[in-house]
């Protein structure tokens, strides 16, 4: 049985957080969130990790996150996302500074992934159970196409105490498959109720509403579909300097046209991230709690 691969989207510099947060220490020995992600992936049966990074911090990143750091327990590769990595026939428009989005980042790994794979954000803590759940599903997909998956988190387990958050709110059918994702911005808890403020009106969300935290599972055909649709996206949006090619956009297209299905895998895991600087102490405290409960060793490596 082929082991799945973990694709880590690490090319983004968190603008609100103000530093290269992928390398920021949150564990008791300076471990980054990436360390916990790779640790969970190894014990969930992943065989390789691929980091999407940028050339501007390549040396610093590789010095920290390499096969030696992980004790040789998982293969490590690196690919690069840059603004001018575009299909033939397209050129970078003057003034473009924003990256092309998460699905463009995924596309950068097309030449190094030939097996089912999971996609994660570098700066999100997804939890041990989530990795075990998606790994088990991915291991059933070898040789198939168009049967994707994602881990759906309950929105009440993904909020920040320090401001609003954006989440991909999911609609799921009776068979557990995704029908669509809608990005909702400015989600927060107000007087005990979870609300989003899109369009100016306050709309409530149920506590257990499934949301996407960018933990997806794909088979390699996804690269082929992405390459084709990215050209359509660029033809329509090349002059929009802020347009981004997000994973949910690609997934929604493939689902709506019947090319693929996406099973929404449930998890009881809490999600943690550092959207704001003030989130870091809370994450560190949670990791300490998990260590005390015996879910992680005090020294990961």
Question: What can you see in these coordinates?
Answer:
25% of the residues lie in helices and 25% in strands. With 301 residues, the chain is α/β, with parallel strands linked by helices. It has a single domain, classed as Alpha-Beta Complex (Spore Coat Polysaccharide Biosynthesis Protein SpsA, Chain A), CATH 3.90.550. The strands form 2 sheets. Strands 1, 2, 3, 4, 6, 7, 8, 9, 10, 11 and 12 form an 11-stranded mixed β-sheet that branches. It has a two-stranded antiparallel ribbon with strand order 5-13. Helix 1 crosses helix 4. The longest helix has 17 residues, at 221-237. The protein is globular, with a radius of gyration of 19 Å.
Task: Offer a quick outline of the entry.
By secondary structure, the chain is an alpha/beta fold.
Reading off the top of the CATH hierarchy, the class is best stated as Alpha Beta
The CATH topology: Spore Coat Polysaccharide Biosynthesis Protein SpsA, Chain A
**Would you list the SSEs in sequence order as H and E?**
EHEHEHEEHEEEEEEHHEEH
Q: What coarse outline follows from CA principal-axis ratios?
A: globular
Report the biggest beta sheet as strand number plus sense, adding barrel if it closes. 11 strands, mixed
State the CATH architecture.
Answer: Alpha-Beta Complex
Radius of gyration: 19 Å
Helix content: 25-40%
Q: What is the beta-strand fraction?
A: 25-35%
Tally the beta strands: 13
* Total domains: 1
Structural class: alpha/beta
Low-confidence residue ranges: 13-19
